[in-house]
């Protein structure tokens, strides 16, 4: 089975974010990058499919060469090889990203495409459904369960108040939500093996996008910090405030 | 194309989501300035009867796509209808909720039209005729304002953030049937069934009150005291990732970056430290209350009101006090 996992390198979620000088993005100096947390569930799902059906797990990412160390972490988890669709700057427009990935995917001829439900940098949650639309194949987004058999898959998709059980024919795309599985850690052996795995770089074909960033700014901090009191004695005062000041009761 | 806005009014099982009205209200707010029309689009099966009421919330016109094949959400079918109706109705802007449906639907529409999406927006404004959306990025640590150089600009709105329009009783809008063809038998993805979550309670993203518990709850059995408080407040119980990973609460109840983004009127965080990834999910709540025994806990920096103390004493006392208020 040909399994491709689309992966994105994102700033570690605990990183302090500063805005760049022209106010349209972040200042990338000193930022520590990690595998997008949702993509870890996608990688794990890919590895489990390979364990069951054989074949290959390929990591595909759209990024600059600087992505290589983070991509190696995915190889250390057990993926077989990686392709970096090389660009100077990752596009902020999801459709540009999706179009470039769709081109890269065609060449890999996947049966199953996995990715995280969203990147935790721009939180767009758009690339999966867009790639599906562009390639004309089904996409089930935000999945918490996946079963593959006989060229078909059944996936549970998280919705408000429950889950949709969706059946698709392969090839298909699935975007992973936390709860799908427990991503494995890279073993020392895996880390050693990853150094020898193949990492291809190809020029990405990125069309111009439609999103225009006007500005990025740090939101005003919530005022907060009003300590009503200590222990159960403070409860009547709190309830008064909720009732008459905040007017939420 | 033109000044009109297509407002996707989400319904499930023949009932509009609260977000349907929020979306129409946000659309109307803009068309009032630009002189365009707010056109509501309803997609489903057996939904024609409920469509007219959208007039009372500000829709100038309502379009209904009613077909058996549209009973469950289908990205393929729904996106085609949305795109075609936007075209036919000369709408340069499409608004929809950033619900599980909207967040799947919006990118498909953009891929079909070659346009752009501003997902999970918390503000939409008209600035000299161009529409600008504001959305949180980097776990809410920054806000980004975007517009689109192509049409239709598709914007999904974070539920519970935009005000509910006042209902004008008796004001019905003209209802038109959609003429977009629905090829339901050639679908590539088929929804087999919908399983309700174990709790059977309202979803966190739609709740107006959430009582959340973290590692400070010490064990699954103690969530009972949060249930009791949530019940008197008409709310639901949420949890931090620590509580979910410990197996005390199901994944569906997790609030935060790898859980759900919520914006209730009232969020009560009990025994939650307030890590950045948790804040990413709840800091757009209208009013935040923190109960924590550690006065240095970061949650107090975002909370409107805090009580420093043992939650096992404070929460039951709070439940009793709220009961008094509710019954009086
Ligand atoms: C990629 C990534 C994604 C993440 N996503 C999420 C997410 O979606 N949601 C999320 O919540 N976290 C998320 N986290 C985890 C997050 O970093 C924190 O670890 C987590 O939020 C901590 O949970 P907590 O506040 O319940 O526990 P702790 O940080 O352990 O805090 C427990 C708090 O309870 C208080 N307490 C203890 N006993 C009592 C008592 N008797 N009475 C009152 N107070 C008491 C303590 O003072 C403490 O402040 C993520 C982390 C990463 C790396």
> What's the assembly state of these chains?
heterodimer
Helix content of chain B: 25-40%
Distance between the termini of chain B: 55 Å
Strand order of the largest sheet of chain B: 7-11-6-1-4-5-12
Care to count the β-strands of chain B?
Answer: 18
Q: What fraction strand of chain A? A: 25-35%
Work out the strand percent of chain B.
25-35%
Number of helices of chain A: 6
User: How many helices of chain B?
Assistant: 9
Indicate the structural class of chain A. Answer: alpha/beta
Q: Rounded to an integer, what's the Rg of chain A over CA atoms?
A: 21 Å
Q: Considering residues with a beta carbon less than 8 A from a beta carbon on another chain, report the largest interface and each chain's count.
A: A-B, 85 and 97 residues
The second-level CATH architecture of the largest domain in chain A is 3-Layer(aba) Sandwich
Q: How far apart are the first and last residues' alpha carbons of chain A, in Å?
A: 56 Å
Major sheet characteristics of chain B = 7 strands, parallel
The overall pLDDT average of chain A reads 96
Instruction: Provide the succession of SSEs of chain A.
Output: EEEHEHEHEHEEEEHEEEH
Output the helix-strand order of chain B.
EEEHEHEHEHEEEEEEEEHEHEHEHEH
Mean pLDDT of chain B: 96
Largest sheet of chain A: 9 strands, mixed
Looking at this structure, what is the CATH superfamily of the largest domain in chain A?
HUPs
Short structural summary:
Chain A is α/β, with parallel strands linked by helices.
Helix-strand layout with pairing:
The complex is a heterodimer of chains A (249) and B (328).
Chain A (H helix, E strand, L loop, with lengths): L1 E5 L2 E3 L21 E3 L1 H17 L2 E8 L4 H10 L3 E6 L7 H15 L3 E5 L10 H9 L3 E11 L2 E8 L2 E8 L2 E5 L11 H7 L4 E5 L7 E7 L9 E4 L4 H11 L4
Parallel strand pairs in A: 1-4, 1-6, 4-5, 5-11, 6-10, 7-10
Antiparallel strand pairs in A: 2-3, 7-8, 8-9
Helix pairs in contact in A: 2-5, 3-4
Chain B lengths: L3 E5 L2 E2 L2 E2 L1 H17 L3 E7 L3 H4 L9 E6 L8 H14 L2 E7 L2 H14 L3 E5 L1 E5 L2 E8 L4 E7 L4 E5 L16 E4 L11 E8 L12 E5 L9 H11 L2 E4 L1 H5 L20 E5 L5 H7 L4 E6 L6 H4 L2 E4 L2 H17 L1
Parallel strand pairs in B: 1-4, 1-6, 4-5, 5-12, 6-11, 7-11, 14-15, 14-16, 16-17, 17-18
Antiparallel strand pairs in B: 2-3, 8-9, 9-10
Helix pairs in contact in B: 3-4, 5-9
Bound molecules: flavin-adenine dinucleotide.
